[in-house]
Amino acid sequence: MSIDESTAARVAKLARIRVADDALPALAGEFNTILGFIEQLNEVDVEGVEPMTGVTPMRLKQRQDVVTDGNQQDKVLANAPDAREGFFAVPKVME
């Protein structure tokens, strides 16, 4: 498949990219280079190859899913302007 200047101009217009008329031949050449690379990739036999997310197999460290209070009540309440009995104290909104 080959991209000519009119097709390159149409792609640029669809992508909302302003391209000067004198730059269209270079843009068409770049598109052709990209399409050539894609054609090379299509020639590779990938039958039976498992998909992968990285080149080295890694397992993420996992912790137990246990609900805790965080044991940081004092640290959290240290920045509160008003704390009473281990809670944030806020002004009454409704009577």
Automatic annotation (TrEMBL):
This is Aspartyl/glutamyl-tRNA(Asn/Gln) amidotransferase subunit C. InterPro entries: Asp/Glu-ADT_sf_sub_c, GatC. It comes from the Bacteria. Signal peptide: none annotated. It comes from Antarcticimicrobium sediminis. The keyword Iron does not apply. Its EC number is 6.3.5.-. It catalyses: L-glutamyl-tRNA(Gln) + L-glutamine + ATP + H2O = L-glutaminyl-tRNA(Gln) + L-glutamate + ADP + phosphate + H(+); L-aspartyl-tRNA(Asn) + L-glutamine + ATP + H2O = L-asparaginyl-tRNA(Asn) + L-glutamate + ADP + phosphate + 2 H(+). Allows the formation of correctly charged Asn-tRNA(Asn) or Gln-tRNA(Gln) through the transamidation of misacylated Asp-tRNA(Asn) or Glu-tRNA(Gln) in organisms which lack either or both of asparaginyl-tRNA or glutaminyl-tRNA synthetases. The reaction takes place in the presence of glutamine and ATP through an activated phospho-Asp-tRNA(Asn) or phospho-Glu-tRNA(Gln).
